[in-house]
Amino acid sequence: MMNGSAILAVHHPVGVFSRRHRLRFVEVLPWAGAVACYFAFPDYLALGAQILATILFALSLDLILGYAGIVTLGHAAFFGAGAYAAGLAASHGWHEPLSGLVIAALAAGAVGLASGLVVLRTQGLPLLMLTLVTAEMLKEAANKATAITGGADGLQGMVVGSIFGRFSFDLYGQTAYVYCLAVLLVGWWVARRIVHSSFGRALTGVRENVVRMRAIGAPVFRHRVVIYTISAAMAGVSGALIAQTTQFVGLESLSFERSGIILIMLILGGVGRLYGAFIGVPLYMVAQDRFAQADPIYWYFWIGMLLVVIVVFARGGLLGTAERLRHRLVRPP
User: Fold this and answer.
1) What is the CATH architecture assignment of 25-330?
2) Separation CA 19–CA 304 (nearest Å)
3) How far apart are the C-alpha atoms of 322 and 111, rounded to whole Å?
4) What residue ranges do the domains of the chain occupy?
5) Residue 332 pLDDT exceeds 60
6) Exposed e or buried b per residue across 26-56, where buried means at least 16 C-beta atoms within 10 angstroms of its C-beta
7) What is the rounded radius of gyration, in angstroms, for the C-alpha atoms of the chain?
8) What confidence tens digit (pLDDT) does each residue in 40-51 have?
9) CA dihedral 72, 74, 76, 82 (to 10 degrees)
10) Burial label, 22 (beta-carbon count in 10 A; 0-12, 13-18, 19+)
11) How far apart are CA 237 and CA 98, in angstroms?
């Protein structure tokens, strides 16, 4: 015999589902912290804008890695595709920044769709290698197309206009910070809607047991391609934000190093928790900035030590550790 909540779930599944995933107070904290940082650290707003744009990049990776179980070493392919798309538009007369984000999303999404139709037919090590090869092929293409991309010297001549024709990018990063925060908010809202939808639940099922999902008739391959394309578009927007706020695009945006670092950032915060990016990215980038100032020569050593400590003593990332501690504290006697 079903209890009251079960009967309600049968007759009103949408209402129960929406209440279960309504916005919680704790979810407001990252945004309150970001607003507070705008006023508390006015001299670091340029760095803050880079952190916010990178959080969007890590969030896009979490959609495919944390929820769909797609492991990749070439996520920079989409970041770089978006950066170059927005940069090329800005350097050829298309100076409006918001439409530049749309161009970047379309370009990166197209790359994600085209590559996803191929690489997602594989699993395990072949999948890893194909994602890596995709990024390296794009990087080499950008390197060879010197007349278009600037090659190893980077894309030159970017001119980014004012937002809504009123808010110009300044040297102090004030406009860039607010701009990146607003775009990140939209990206987070989209990601949250996906995660808490029936499609997101299906992705979790694919991550946990592909064979069982296929057995019940779920279109596994289609789901994976769709989320891969959405993730690519979000990563492209992140790349465009970096390109527009720095007015420069280089080959590094397509590098394996960028793919590896964003993966490390996400692991530090916690994979598959939606908010791991909000923890891991600021932690890594602020630590990198502090260590580089304290020890300009050997700062990478201290970054490595930090990573070792977190990986060994905080399995599941910082959010995973916090969840385990909370469960221990509230565990009934």
Assistant:
1) Orthogonal Bundle (1.10)
2) 42
3) 37
4) 25-330
5) no
6) eeeebeeebeebbeeeeebbbbbbbbbbbbb
7) 21
8) 999 999 999 999
9) -100
10) exposed
11) 10
